[in-house]
Design a protein that fits this description.
Structural class: alpha/beta
Shape: elongated
Helix content: 25-40%
Number of helices: 11
Strand order of the largest sheet: 10-11-9-12-13-14
Largest sheet: 6 strands, mixed
């Protein structure tokens, strides 16, 4: 059964945003209290996070499809939908994230380092958020945006200070077993080690990690044996230690030939020319092993290598080798720049001033841009008022004006978005909303008129006011006539 996996292809899908709600507040004696539809919740994202306790990608090998949860739709009463939960995937330290084309998306090194592999979709706005002074009662809401989805490749590169490289059965696993507390599989046949083994070594005040890389053979950099699968594990190491077998019985092999072969494969793989090298002449405790070491030591030193004669069985030379590795590791650590605390850096994507482009393709006009494509995804095309709102937004952005400039005519085919999820329609300049009863687009004339009971009360009040005014006028007229009669009577008495 597979227990170690260092490369997987993973399909990740973020959660979709929840749809906005189109609702009108209603209560007794107040049937049209204004829009109160809430916004949809945000979709959950897929996040890769480094965990020092995770050492393999085996979990994702068995279940390569991962999806975050969707946001909940909004509701009436200004209730916002719940956000979808983020899906956090724990990966080993040293994981490299690539796309299907091999482009590096992220290099995750250090406990807690995170990378958003798929961003959750934004929730749609409810009609309460879409209301304005000119659009007092929208009868529509925006749809939630779909979350990002795609395939990524994760490769594990071991984060070790020292890498032991050499032919199969050269004794690398035996060395790491006595230098550290690691317990790798050890046997007397080639390719015993099928996975990289890590161990922790203490030499004086220096503590470092050592990696046992599966054996290399000629052609490893082109895929022969197991070399190509695991050469990536030596990329981060500060020191390379050649473990040369001084007791091999294979014809045509000797320590110098093995060294040249391994160096040729490392050079073919590339990127390791600047790493310090040490040479460990292993198995000097077996018959003829010490003689072969004595014959080859001078030649190796002439080539500039520091040579150590070691034996995993008798532990000869292991102390000197471990302190030599510790010294180089300490120098490499001192030469590294001081790591600053992680800062959150926002890098918004640059867009042109217009925000969209129009190109002619096979007699149709394709519109591409962040805003138009997002607005199309948010539009409910079963609602005429929502379609009219989209037309207004596109017109304000300048789409209609630019269509005229590029030579489009009424009835021409217009495409918004990429091929996989494009929206195709026949262009009608100054498109009507299709909701004639609403008057101006996005407005409800019912919100502008009084209710019938109020109208009846006002009519009655007007009648009472008119009757009272007529009565007062009649009373004033009667008083004037009475005064005139009394004045005539006084004149007759005189």
């Amino acid at each position: 059964m597979t227990t170690f996996v260092d490369r997987v292809e993973l399909h990740v899908a973020a959660g979709n945003g929840g749809h906005g709600c189109a609702s009108v507040h209603r209560e007794k004696f107040k049937p049209l209290g204004g829009p109160d539809g809430g916004n949809g919740g945000e979709g959950g994202s897929v996040i890769l996070t480094v965990d020092s306790q995770v050492t393999t990608l085996l979990e994702y090998h068995h279940s390569p499809k991962r999806k975050a949860t969707n946001g909940k739709p909004g509701a009436g009463g200004h209730r916002t939908g719940a956000d979808g939960g983020d899906l956090v995937l724990l990966v080993p330290d040293g994981t490299v994230v690539l796309d299907r084309k091999g482009n590096v998306l992220a290099d995750l090194v250090g406990h807690g380092t995170s990378f958003v592999a798929a961003q959750g979709g934004r929730g749609g706005l409810g009609n309460a958020a879409l209301a304005s002074a000119r659009r007092k009662a929208p009868g529509f809401a925006l749809l939630g945006e779909p979350g990002e989805a795609g395939d990524i490749v994760m490769e594990l590169k071991s984060v070790a200070d020292v890498a032991l490289v050499g032919y199969p059965s050269a004794g690398k696993s035996s060395l790491i077993s006595v230098l550290s507390a690691a317990k790798p599989k050890i046997a007397d046949y080639p390719f015993t080690t099928l996975i990289p083994n890590l161990g922790v070594v203490t030499a004086g005040d220096t503590v470092y990690t050592i990696a046992d890389v599966p054996g290399l053979i000629p052609g490893a950099s082109q895929g022969r044996g197991l070399g190509l699968e695991f050469l990536r594990h030596v990329e981060r190491c500060s020191v390379l230690v050649h473990v040369l077998d001084c007791a091999t019985l294979e014809p045509g092999r000797d320590p110098l030939t093995d060294l040249e072969t391994i160096e040729a494969e490392l050079a073919e793989y590339g990127g390791l020319e600047d790493r310090p090298r040490l040479v460990a002449l292993n198995k000097v405790d077996v018959p003829d092993g010490q003689d072969i070491a004595d014959l080859t030591r001078a030649s190796l030193e002439e080539r500039g290598y520091r040579v150590f004669e070691v034996s995993a069985a008798s532990r000869k030379g292991l102390r000197e080798l471990s302190f030599a590795m510790a010294g180089i590791v300490a120098e490499a650590r001192a030469a590294k720049p001081v790591e600053e605390s992680t800062r959150i850096v926002l890098r918004p994507k640059a867009v042109d001033d217009a925000g969209f482009t129009i190109t002619e393709e096979d007699g149709a006009y394709r519109i591409r841009g962040v805003k138009p494509e997002r607005w199309v995804r948010q539009t409910d095309f079963s609602n005429d008022e929502a379609v009219g709102y989209l037309a207004d937004r596109l017109a304000r952005l300048g789409v209609e004006e630019k269509l005229w400039k590029v030579g489009a005519h009424e009835g021409d085919t217009v495409i918004i978005g990429p091929d996989e999820n494009a929206v195709v329609f026949d262009w009608e300049p100054t498109m009507a909303a299709g909701a004639e009863m609403l008057g101006r687009r996005g407005e409800d004339h019912r919100m502008e008129t009084q209710r019938p009971a109020v109208d009846r009360r006002r009519e009655k009040q007007k009648g009472r006011d008119a009757a009272e005014a007529e009565f007062l006028a009649f009373e004033a007229l009667s008083s004037g006539r009475q005064a005139a009669i009394e004045g005539d009577d006084e004149d007759e008495d005189h």
